[in-house]
């Protein structure tokens, strides 16, 4: 089984080939496509990139989306971007997390490609030397929360949106690296309490436990505060900053570097188990009922 996963990873790594930025300040990251999944807008004065997830209706994280996100981060690093602000084009959803359709009734090799892409893209975001901020302008369950936690600073639009690692509510388990990200933000006690119950926090609750750093009342304010956070690093030498970030995040980085294949095998085994499949089926039914 590990052989399949290793060759899958090889294919995926090659698929992350770099693309050159055009001369223009604004660029779209994907192949020529009238509806890109992620828009990137680099401020010509500050060099800060606003990365807007634009995959309606709810910015689910599936393989094409994650590949594109990985490519965007690579491009921004190559272009020595001064900061990365992650936000959403939706008025109510930051990201609905992993695309359940990538896991529900999916063949094991498809699940493996999906998970490897997620692992790689997560690691790119989590460890990038670029200062990162999540401007959370909508709900951020599960993988949506992970994206936000992988950034260095979180500004959330309140009070009506929610955020959290709710996996246990679906009958699945947040993997250790999701948990490490949560623990880095809120500490071990709050992590255990939150993850065992799959709690979704209101924006105010999230602020109170340190899951987010700031509450604001709209997206414009969130972006303004995100820019302010990035401006703090104007006089900090980038290498010192990058290494300090790596040292601070070494538990998560080490986990992924050393346990990537074990994590992949565990994921495929757990996600394809009858109980996880049943949980996803019931959850998808509930989502469908809600939207009709
Ligand atoms: C050691 C352990 C190793 C492995 C363990 C194994 C597995 C664990 C793996 C990983 C952890 C999982 C992480 C995840 O991220 S799982 C996904 C969790 N996400 C959610 O729970 C969010 C679900 N969605 C919502 O709550 C709402 O959609 C939301 C509040 C975000 C927005 O509500 P709104 O009313 O605006 O939209 P909806 O009508 O609900 O949705 C529109 C449309 O989109 C579909 N949808 C929503 N979310 C998902 C999703 N995550 N995946 C796929 N599809 C999704 C929804 O069904 C609607 O579809 P349709 O009816 O066809 O329009």
From TrEMBL:
Named from the GO MF annotations, one term is:
delta(3)-delta(2)-enoyl-CoA isomerase activity
According to UniProt, the reaction catalysed is: (3Z)-decenoyl-CoA = (2E)-decenoyl-CoA; (2E)-tetradecenoyl-CoA = (3Z)-tetradecenoyl-CoA; (3Z)-octenoyl-CoA = (2E)-octenoyl-CoA; (3Z)-dodecenoyl-CoA = (2E)-dodecenoyl-CoA
User: Where does the sequence pass through the membrane?
Assistant: none
- GO cellular component terms attached to this protein's record: mitochondrial matrix
Q: Which SUPFAM superfamilies does the UniProt record give?
A: ClpP/crotonase
Entry's localization field: Mitochondrion matrix
Write the record's keywords in alphabetical order, separated by commas: Acetylation, Fatty acid metabolism, Isomerase, Lipid metabolism, Mitochondrion, Transit peptide
Please indicate if the UniProt record lists Cytoplasm as a keyword. Answer: no
Q: Which GO terms describe its biological process?
A: fatty acid beta-oxidation
Pathway(s) the chain acts in: Lipid metabolism; fatty acid beta-oxidation
Describe its function: Key enzyme of fatty acid beta-oxidation. Able to isomerize both 3-cis (3Z) and 3-trans (3E) double bonds into the 2-trans (2E) form in a range of enoyl-CoA species, with a preference for (3Z)-enoyl-CoAs over (3E)-enoyl-CoAs. The catalytic efficiency of this enzyme is not affected by the fatty acyl chain length.
Quaternary state and partners of this protein? Homotrimer.
What is the protein named?
Enoyl-CoA delta isomerase 1, mitochondrial
């Amino acid at each position: 089984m590990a052989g399949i996963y290793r060759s899958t990873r090889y294919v995926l790594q090659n698929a992350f080939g770099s693309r050159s930025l055009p001369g223009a300040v604004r660029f779209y990251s994907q192949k020529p496509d009238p509806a890109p999944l992620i828009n990137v807008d680099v401020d010509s004065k500050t060099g800060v990139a606003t990365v807007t997830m634009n995959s309606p209706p709810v910015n689910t994280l599936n393989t094409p989306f994650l590949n594109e996100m990985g490519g965007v981060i690579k491009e921004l690093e190559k272009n020595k971007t001064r900061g990365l602000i992650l936000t959403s084009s939706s008025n109510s959803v930051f990201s609905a997390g992993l695309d359940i359709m990538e896991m529900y009734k999916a063949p094991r090799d498809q699940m493996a490609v999906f998970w490897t892409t997620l692992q790689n893209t997560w690691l790119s975001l989590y460890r990038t030397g670029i200062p990162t901020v999540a401007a959370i302008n909508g709900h951020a369950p599960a993988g949506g929360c992970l994206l936000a936690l992988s950034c260095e600073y979180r500004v959330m639009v309140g009070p009506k949106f929610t955020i959290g690692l709710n996996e246990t509510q679906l009958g699945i388990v947040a993997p250790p690296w999701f948990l490490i990200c949560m623990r880095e933000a809120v500490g071990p006690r709050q992590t255990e309490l939150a993850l065992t119950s799959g709690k979704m926090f209101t924006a105010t609750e999230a602020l109170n436990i340190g899951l987010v750093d700031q509450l604001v009342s709209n997206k414009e304010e969130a972006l303004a505060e995100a820019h302010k956070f990035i401006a703090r690093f104007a006089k900090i030498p980038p290498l010192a900053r990058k290494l300090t970030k790596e040292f601070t995040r070494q538990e998560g980085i080490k986990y992924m570097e050393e346990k990537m294949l074990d994590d992949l095998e565990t994921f495929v085994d757990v996600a394809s188990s009858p109980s996880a499949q049943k949980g996803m089926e019931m959850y998808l039914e509930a989502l469908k009922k809600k939207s009709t």
